[in-house]
């Protein structure tokens, strides 16, 4: 998948069980459907 901002190939990483796609060039972050809810849920339980 390409970054919509600068067309760089996105890098996928796993953070606490949530797959995050990010651009190593512009540092933009993209989440798939439902992943933002997981991030919010995990941040409130800490």
Can you tell me about this structure?
- By secondary structure, the chain is of the alpha+beta class.
- The protein has one domain (11-44).
- 22% of the residues lie in helices and 28% in strands.
- It contains one helix and three strands.
- The chain has one helix at 35-44; strands at residues 11-15, 18-22, 29-31.
- The chain has a three-stranded antiparallel beta sheet with strand order 1-2-3.
- Strand 1 and strand 2 form a beta hairpin.
- The model has no long low-confidence stretch (mean pLDDT 92).
- Residues 2-42 form the Transcription factor zinc-finger domain.
- It holds the Pfam family Zn_ribbon_TFIIB.
- This is Transcription factor zinc-finger domain-containing protein.
- InterPro entries: TF_Znf.
Task: Give the arrangement of secondary structure elements.
Blueprint: E1 11-15, E2 18-22, E3 29-31, H1 35-44
Antiparallel strand pairs: 1-2, 2-3
Number of domains: 1
Point out poorly predicted stretches.
none
- Strand fraction equals 25-35%
- How many β strands by DSSP? 3
Cα-atom radius of gyration: 12 Å
Instruction: Count up the helices.
Output: 1
Give me the secondary-structure category.
alpha+beta
What's the helical proportion of residues? 10-25%
Task: Output the keywords.
TF_Znf; Transcription factor zinc-finger domain-containing protein; alpha+beta; three-stranded antiparallel beta sheet
